[in-house]
Amino acid sequence: MLNIILFGPPGAGKGTQSQYLKDKYHLAYFSTGDILREEMAAKTEIGLKVKALIDAGNLVSDDIVVEMIRQRVKENIKGNGFLFDGFPRTVRQAEMLDEMFAGFSLKINGVLSLEVPQDMLIERMLERGKTSGRADDNIDTIRHRFEEYDAKTKPVMNYYETFGNLHKINGVGKIEEVFDRLCAEIDKM
Ligand code: ADP
Q1: What is the pLDDT of residue 164?
Q2: Which of 58, 81, 90, 133: disulfide with 1, CB 3.0–4.6 Å?
C-alpha cells in the first residue's frame, strides 16, 4: 500500500497534482477542502455548520475533518492506498491521523511538501478566483488563509520532519515538471 500526504500552502497546486498522482498510482484521493465544499453545496448539517468559517478563511474543527477522513479510510481500506490533500492541516489532526492509521495497521509512506513563494501563490489564487466561484478566493480572505496556514498548518511540517518522512518539492514550473519531481520522490519510497 502507498499512503501519501500532499502538503503545502493554499494555492500551491495540490489539487491539480493530486488528479495526476491518484491516476498514476491508483490511490483513493481525498481533499478535505473538496469534501467540505460538497457538503456546503448540498446544504448538509456539516455544510451549514462550516460555511461561515470557510468563507472567512478560517479552519474548521479538527473533529469534523478527521471524522470525514475516518469514514473514507474505512471504506477504501482494501485499495492500493490513499492520497490526502489539505489534510492534516493542524498538528492535532496529524496526531489523530496517526492514531487512526495505527488502529487500521496502516502507515504514512511519505509527506510531499510543495514549495511555492507566497507572492506567486496569491497571484494564482486571485486568478483562480475569477472562475472558481469560491467565496474564499478574494484578497482579504486569502491573506487570512495565509495567517491560518502560518499559525496552524506550518507546524505540521516540523511534526513530519521529526519522523523523517517529509520531502520538499519545488512547486514552481510547468504542471508536468512539478509532477515529474513528485513522482521521482514517490518512486523512491
Ligand atoms: P486551499 O488549499 O486553497 O486553502 P482547500 O480547498 O484545501 O483550499 O480548503 C478550503 C477551506 O476548507 C480552508 O480554508 C478551510 O476553511 C477548510 N479546510 C479544508 N481542509 C481542512 C482541514 N483539514 N482542517 C480544517 N479546515 C479545513
Answers
A1: 83
A2: 81
